[in-house]
Amino acid sequence: CALVVAVVACLALVAGGVALALGSSSGDDDDAAGESASPAGEGEPAGELAADASPAEAFAHAAAVLDEAGTFSYEATSRVEGPDPAGGSATIAFDRDLTGDVVLPDAVRETIDDPDGLYTERISIGTDTALRSWVRDTAYPDQIDERPWGEFDSSAGELELYLLPDWLEGAVDHRDVGEDANARRVVEASIPAALINDLGPEVVIIDAAVELTLDGEGVPHRVAIDVSTSDTVIEASYRLTDLGGELAVERPRADQ
């Protein structure tokens, strides 16, 4: 499966034990949503967050920090709970380990380690209106580079972390919730459902919430996102690293 979830498709994948059904393989379409993505580098200097900043100011500052950085990496865990694809009233839940690189404003490359042994890599470049996604998977992680890419011309059904600055900037109902075990400030808010990227034609997003942990200068350290859809709950916690690092996300070559 891919990141914070190809909600219904991912649940079906775990239950069925089969690989993702992919679209056409990546060919030589040079008009894709970008050959590669490089840092935007257009953010205004964010400076340090004032000690008495409100929760709303903390969210806006964190968004500005990410925009200014232009890139970041993450390590994450994701829990998905939803109806059992086999039918009936039962539900199933599973946890995934995720790593990824983000190049703002519109690119992510991510790997997903599923509990059933499936290892997945995906790339998304673009927006909801002009998105290209590539996915490949294997039961043998050391062979992932040998697997062919499958291509989508729409969302792969995952939460796209290149939208994180938009989620932080557009969050509402901000509130302080104290500090973590290392005395980092923790704030939380709601994310309007309209800001969450498309998760699939049959997935209706009901609500979303975000918990943001900041270091002493107001730099985002950890982001936890909960999304409730019409029948599935997604809980993901991301630890952000390498802000402003030299990262690149490129579309797969035609021979891959």
Task: Looking at this protein, list some descriptive labels.
two-stranded antiparallel sheet, 256 residues, 11-stranded antiparallel sheet, 40% strand, mainly beta
Report on the architecture of this protein:
The chain has 256 residues and is mainly beta. Helices cover 12% and strands 40% of the residues. The chain contains three helices and 13 strands. The protein has an eleven-stranded antiparallel β-sheet. Strand 11 and strand 12 form a beta hairpin. Helix 2 packs antiparallel against helix 3. The longest helix is centred in the N-terminal third of the chain and has 15 residues. The two termini are 20 Å apart. The N terminus is likely disordered.
Apparent shape: globular
Uncertain stretches of 5 or more adjacent residues: 1-35
Percentage of helical residues?
10-25%
The profile of the biggest β sheet is:
11 strands, antiparallel
Q: How big a fraction of the residues is strand?
A: 35-45%
**Backbone structural class:** mainly beta
Order of helices and strands: HEHEEEEEEHEEEEEE
Spatial order of strands in the largest sheet: 7-6-5-4-3-2-12-11-10-9-8
What's the mean pLDDT score? 84
Ends apart, CA distance between termini = 20 Å
Helix tally equals: 3
